[in-house]
Amino acid sequence: MTTTIEAPAHVPPALFWDHDPNVFAQEMDDPFLAISRLHDGPDIIWAAQAGRAKRGAWLATRHALVQEIFLDPVRFSSLDSSGVQTQLGVDWKLLPLEVDPPEHGDYRLILQPWFQPAAIKAMEAGMRRGAEEIIASFEDRDGCEFISEFAQLFPSYVILELMNLPRDMLPTFLKWESAFIHAKSIDERAVAVRKIASYMADFLEERRRGPRRDDVIQAILEAQIRGRPLTQAEIMGLTMILYTGGLDTVLSSLGWYFRYLATDQALQARLRENPQDIPQVVDELLRAYGVVGRPRTVTQDMVFHGVEMKKGDVVMAPGWLAGRDPHQYPDPHRIDPDRKPRHLTLATGPHNCVGSHLAKREIKIVLEAFLSRFENIRLAPGETASWQTTGVWSVTRLPLVWDRIQA
Ligand code: HEM
């Protein structure tokens, strides 16, 4: 094959791969199987069309390397890892996501208490009510389009509740979400992110003037770092991560899980009869469907696992490869309800997902809510699911049918 892009001088020809992994993943019916073809090659490759603006990035194909990258913020920096500042031109960055230790810990400490298991338990009844309300809108039918009728709505309900935003904000939230996440061009995304940020800035101002509430927003507004109050940019960064971290990830994950579940009647029956197995299956689904590939920037010229890297190189640590690595998981493409895996879908190291307990609880509640009402959940006859692999890998349409369980 003739390549159109030249390898940087330090990239050996054997590691040069003239592809965009997200496009490569679309070559089969199942993107996780398609991308897993990379497991047959080197542990780390230079993907010439990966990374921001397709400028090329190292791609770790092995679980062990992805883990090492997450655990090493000294050599692999998270600065500017979302591109909101450099690409979308806003004057804040996502916090704590885009700072390295030790500053990272200051921001993380502000959010962390609101995401501990006890705090999430306190949210559980509200989340369950949210799921039930949404399901009530199609409960008397024999199916639904799972993505638009459920998966898009539920994580927004949860984040509205977490931030104490009014329920009637839901349609606006959804409109933003679709503009921010699905906009085709950087310009469209920039417009969308400014709209969201402008609303959030007004909302934060209202909260400053209004009565105190015992929630994460109050904690952000009142937080101090080493004896000083936060700047407006820091407050925006901490607020916006709740929005960007907690919506699309859960929506996308739920899409893959239900697409899979619709093919596995035995698993549905097992979980209906043994709901105590749901948490371990949530981890197995998380493992198998790693929806994000996070970037890091190399901080110094170095050799990593025999590969020469230059300061400024971008390295991708993809969940979609780590979770399917045959060196880590025997029979990695099989969903094994008894596997009880440790996985990297919620990352590890200093930036491991703050929302991990919340995400797992949301998924558990959704599985319980569907499996207790419907059985034989399956793809609607003659229909196919649609999905995409740009940004967060997600199912975009999933028409399901089921048999209703008689109360
Ligand atoms: C299945 C759903 C989710 C997935 C797959 C996911 C995945 C991840 C990953 C891979 C990271 C690490 C990013 C990095 O190291 O660069 C991360 C960080 C983060 N996530 Fe999640 N996440 C999910 C749900 C949530 C939820 C529900 C929230 C809460 C609103 C949340 C909030 C955050 C925050 C604040 C960070 C930054 C942590 C830090 O930088 O210290 N996530 N998430």
How would you describe this structure in keywords?
407 residues, globular, 16 helices, 6-stranded mixed β-sheet, 15 strands, binds protoporphyrin IX containing FE, 3-stranded antiparallel β-sheet, Cytochrome p450, alpha+beta, 44% helix
Task: Tell me about this structure.
The protein has 407 residues and is an alpha+beta fold. It has one domain: Cytochrome p450 (Orthogonal Bundle). It has 16 helices and 15 strands. The strands form five sheets. The chain has a six-stranded mixed sheet with strand order 1-2-3-11-8-4. A three-stranded antiparallel sheet has the order 5-15-12. The protein has a two-stranded antiparallel ribbon with strand order 6-7. The termini are far apart. The model has no long low-confidence stretch (mean pLDDT 94). The structure holds protoporphyrin IX containing FE (HEM).
